[in-house]
Amino acid sequence: MMKWSVEEARNGQKILKLNDTHIYSQYNPLRAVETYMETEIQVETKEYILIGVGLGYHLDYLVERVPNSVVRYVFLDAEEERLYNKYNAKQYIRLPNVQPLKNQSMSSVAHIVVPQSYVRAVENGDNQVLHQFLQDIKIRQASYKKSESQLKENFQYNIANFTPINKRSDNRKIAALVSAGPSLDDTVLFLKSKVRELDIYCVGSALRVLLKHDIVPKAVVITDPLDEISKQIPVDFTGDLYFLSTANYRAVQQHQGKKQILFQEGFELAEKFAEKHEQPLFSTGGSVATTTFSLIEWLGYEEVYLFGQDLGFSAKQTHAENSTSNREVGKYQKLIEIIANDGSTIHTTPNLLTYKRWFNRAFQNSNMRIYNTAAKCAKLENTLFIPLNNKESDEFYGE
Fold it and tell me: Where are the alpha helices (DSSP H) in the chain?
C-alpha cells in the first residue's frame, strides 16, 4: 500500500510525498519540474508516456511545452488520482490528446517519463514489482542517452550495405547460447565435447574463450555501439556475425565473414527501416545475451542450452577468465544478493537484475525448451537446471 501526503513548499506551492519521500522540490517545485522536464523533451517525439502524475506538475509542463504531442499518463493508484483531481486546477487530462495509458495504446517509439523521485519513493514502499519496473525503465534510458549519437551514426553506416536476414536452411533442433559469465570456465570443455550435437551462438565477449579451446561457434553476436567492441572479434575469425543495427560499425566493417543485421524494437530508425524492407524486429532486452536469445528463437530451434549465463558472480571475477570483458567486481559497486541454481547465494547488480527479469518474461512466453547449465548462476524461471561441468560427458537431458 502506498502512503501519500500533501504539504507546502517554502514558496507556498503544494507538494507531494509518497512513502515519506518528496516527489517535488521543497523550495520551488514548479521551477525544479521545469528544469527536469527540459531534459526529457525530444523535438521529434510525438508521444509521451508519463508514469506517476502526482499533483500534475510534470503533466502540465508536457501539455504546454509540446501541445501537438499525445501524452499518455499512469496513476500509480486511486489515491494519487484523487489528490490530482483535488489539487490540480488545470485538469489537462480532459484534453483529447491527453489519455490514460492502456496496453493497446503502448507505443514502442513513445518517450517514457519517470521522475527519479518516483523511483526512490516506490523503493521505500512495499510494491517491489512496481519498483523493479520503474528501475528497469531508468536503466535503459540512461544507457540510451549515454550513447545516443553513437547509435545513430552506427545505424547509418550499418544499413549502407544492407542485406536481408535469412532463416536457417537446415533443421537442427538444438542450440547453445554461450555468454561470458564466470561459470563458462567450468563448462567450456563439456561444451567442446558436444560441438557436433548443437549449433553454438556466442556473445562477442565469449568468443575468445571458445576459440582458446578450439571451439568455433556457428555465429557470434554483437550489440555494443562503442569502438571497444572491436577487440572482441579476432581478425582471423571468419565465422558468421549477427550484429544489431546500432552495433559499432567499425567492428562490423572489419569482420571478413558473413554478416547479417538485426533490427531492434524500440529504436525508431530501425523500426521504420525494417517495416520498409519487410524485415523482422527483435526484442533486445538491453543486452547482447538477451538479443541472442531472441535471435535463436526466431531461427526456429526447439531447445536451447545456456552456458555462462550467470547474471551474477559468486567470486571476485565478473566474467570467464579469457573473456574480453573480465574484471574484478568493483569495491564500491552496488551488489544485491540473489539465489543461484544450486540454492546458494550469489551477488548481482541492478543492471544484471534487469536482464534477469527480461529472461524470465521471455522464457515464460517461449515455445523452446530451455536448459541452464551452471550451478553458481542466477536461478531463472521456466528453465530446467542441468548441472554440467568439465568432468562430465553425459548426453544432453533434452535429447
Answer: 29-38, 57-65, 78-87, 116-123, 128-146, 148-158, 184-193, 207-212, 249-254, 268-276, 288-298, 350-365
Q: Per the structure block, which three cell numbers stand in for 323?
A: 573473456
For 166, the grid coordinates are 535469412
Measured distance CA(278)–CA(283) in Å, rounded = 16
Q: Specify burial of residue 118 (Cβ count, 10 A radius: 0-12, 13-18, 19+).
A: buried
Q: Considering the entire predicted model, what is its pTM?
A: 0.70
Q: What is the pLDDT of residues 269-280, one digit of tens each?
A: 898 899 999 999
Residue 174 near residue 305, CB atoms below 8 Å: yes
Count of CB atoms within 10 A of residue 386's CB? Answer: 17
Summarize the confidence of residues 89-94 as an average pLDDT.
Answer: 95
pLDDT tens for 193-245 read: 988 899 999 999 999 999 999 999 999 999 999 898 999 999 899 999 999 99
Bridge partner list, 281: 263
Closest CA to 232 of 213, 215, 255: 255
CA atoms within 13 A on the CB side of 35: 7
DSSP symbols for 177-193: EE---TTHHHHHHHHHH
